[in-house]
Amino acid sequence: MAHSPGSRLASIDIIRGAVMVLMAIDHVRVYSGLPGGGPTPGIFLTRWVTHFCAPAFVFLAGTSAFFYGQKHRDLSRFLLTRGAWLVLLELTVIRVSWTFNLDFAHYMLAGVIWMIGWCMILLAVLVKLPIRAVGAIGLLIIAGHNLLDSRFFQLASTMPEHGLGWLWTILYFGFFAEPVQLGAGGPPLIVLYSIVPWIGVMAAGYAFGTILTADPARRRRLCLGIGLSATALFVVLRGLNLYGDPSPWGGTPDGADGRPAMPALLAFLNPSKYPASLNFLLMTLGPTIALIPVLESARGKLAEWLSVFGRVPFFFYLLHIPLIHALALLVSKVRLGAVSPWLFTNHPMGNPPAPDGYTWGLGLLYAVWALAIVLLYFACRRYADVKARRSDGWLRYL
To answer: Does the predicted model carry a pTM greater than 0.85?
Structure first.
């Protein structure tokens, strides 16, 4: 029996919930003062497990768009308005949640919600095409954008001459480019997540919705086949440094860049995220897709908890940043006797190093994360119940 577009797949809610829970680890790390990705294996893996979040979140946002379109005729309009809403929230509410300051004149962040918003706006156009074409475009962008890395760098060097450097930053270079200046004398916009290749991920996720409507046996077979094949392709491409990442994983010799070389296994598991390389997406999306059929029969308290978060992921997102930030203020007060001014600077990008004596250990990081998850569970369960009982149009946007 095929999956009905009007029903929910428990495995998707569980995966979305797991994504939100893992994402919170990295956002607690932001306020812990610990660096992302090193220098110890423990800190590296604390960051690494969260790499699965953005790809799964964007991919399943495309899948959710597919299921919305199966039940409503206004898919393009919904994607356009929701996308614009997400961009607005990123630049206002979410920006204040990260920083707890109103210094808009010197700092703006285009983070993951900004990127998802613009991808939804672009998807609003793409969904006018046949679904196979949308999927093909998505896969072409994911698989092919690293072919053009050198060409992209050449274009990036010439576009500022024509006043278009800002566009290239937003489209592709993001984090590694200069901030975008918003108007003459306007605030700098730090672009953390560029549009390419994420629009490809969302488009592929949209087409993936057709697989989830197949009968259970076929759905499981396809998910396992796609997921395990993507993971195996990552191992081959990354292992042999054949293609799919601008940075080979051999690492730098000890002392070549002023730091010890990264251990081989950690370097292998560290493909480029900004912008997301093919290898990064294969490493993260492959296991995520393969897990879908495995989790279809998941039961128990843990599955129930994760499903609650997975039913209201954006509500979770909006709450978790100010909550974690507030808990960091409390930790600072308890440990240092005062709230560190560092917690009111411009998180998470462009922030100065944490002051001496502030940085947490991993044990404290995970304790604060666990407390935040427990507190968020009760709020998300209440909101999920409201969404289940009511059909107000505004609920679709939160």
So the answer is: yes
